[in-house]
Amino acid sequence: MLMLANRAHDALNWTRKLDFLAPLAIRLYLVPIFWMAGSNKIDFETLAPYDSVVQWFGNPDWGLGLPFPTLMAYLAGYAELLGAVALLFGFALRWMAIPMMVTMVVAAVTVHWQYGWPAIADPKAPAIFLTDRIADSADKLAAAKSLLQAHGNYGWLKSSGNFVILNNGIEFAATYFVMLLSLFFTGAGRFFSLDYWIYQVFRR
After folding, report:
1. At what angle do helices 21-39 and 171-186 cross, to 10 degrees?
2. Does this model's pTM top 0.85?
3. For residue 14, what is the DSSP state?
């Protein structure tokens, strides 16, 4: 029995020859996410943050209330844009993962923390994730659907997907942080990254 278990484990270890696929998949998954986030902050014509972004970063009443909002907008926008490029090409990825993880922590704490964990309000979520805000979402969603069915072209409105209520919790920011943390420790992976080939040339 032990011999069979060892052989099964050896067979499973064979898949490690393909271990470059995991970091590659994570990188390609994150590229559009960070590129879109950065391009929503940085104006490509002026290479500066949009005024609306700076105002949102700095305003304590309806924004984040961060100090030095212009600087923070620059740092966040370029961390995301340059991070997307680093993810795509697998270049200096372990270094670039650091500012990207910082942006995820800042986003989680300043934007999403007050809403709990779930990104989408789901009243059927485990009790540990339920808040009054989420519990009340079912009635509000049902009321919204009823209004749209009665007074709107509901079939057309729903043709792009089901209606949901955005809870805006830390779920997505935490997920991206964990994925970046994995890349920080493993690197960009073999074969399909510039980091791998640079290492082959200059470190051996």
Report:
1. 130
2. yes
3. G
Mapped onto helix, strand or coil, the DSSP state of residue 197 is helix
Q: Are residues 132 and 190 in the same domain?
A: no
DSSP string, 21-63: HHHHHHHHHHHHHHHHHHHTTEETTTTEE-HHHHHHHH-TTTS
Q: Tally the domains of the chain.
A: 2
Condensed to tens digits (0 to 9), the pLDDT of residues 86-137 reads 999 999 999 999 999 999 999 999 999 999 999 999 988 888 988 889 988 9
Alpha helices per DSSP H over the chain: 2-13, 21-39, 51-58, 69-89, 93-107, 132-135, 137-151, 154-157, 171-186, 194-202
Q: Residue 61 is part of which domain span? A: 21-114+170-204
Name residues whose C-beta falls within 8 Å of residue 18's C-beta, 6 or more positions apart in sequence.
none
Q: Are 26 and 124 members of one domain?
A: no
Same domain, 99 and 146: no
